[in-house]
Amino acid sequence: MTERLPALRLLLADDEPVRRAALAALLALEEGLTVVAEADSAPAALALAAHRRPDVAVLALRSPGLDGSPLPACPTVIMTTHDRPGDLRRALRAGAGAFLPRSVSAADLAHAVRTVHGGRRYIHPDTLAPDTTVLTAEELDVLDLTAAGAPVPLPAEAARRHLTSATTKLGAAHPSAALRRAHRHGWI
Predict the structure, then answer these.
(1) Domain 8-127 class in CATH
(2) pTM
(3) 107-138 pLDDT per residue, tens
């Protein structure tokens, strides 16, 4: 006798209608998964999540969580076509529980959904691009927050020190050039 998987209600968000419909159809074939709401944008996903209260949100949008926008208030899976190291870091900082490429199988996606619903994190190995930056995590965070125009949660002296160090390590003449170089390499 096999153990039945718990029934999970999903919010699915994808900005491409055909892909969203295909993904919904594939997820419906997985035992215990039901798509209860579909959205075509981050604001629509947030509104639907507040109204429908899904168990897990699956976001296959271009930037939610990666651009500093909020994620739904439920475990969230982010699917992406990007594999830049900064994207993974930003998604996790935003609160995503899973991060995987859009090219995964329905079974892998279902596994990620069940994993985040169980309170664990899931990062698909194909999204772990080599991070060849010479910058420390603190320097990357300060550059990332500075680029986003967000306040840096460090004392001004420490933030200035990390920004100066990153600028020097990247061989940039000034912080804005360091930001451009780090962005071009996909580190932020």
Answers:
(1) alpha beta
(2) 0.68
(3) 999 999 999 999 998 888 777 655 556 678 78
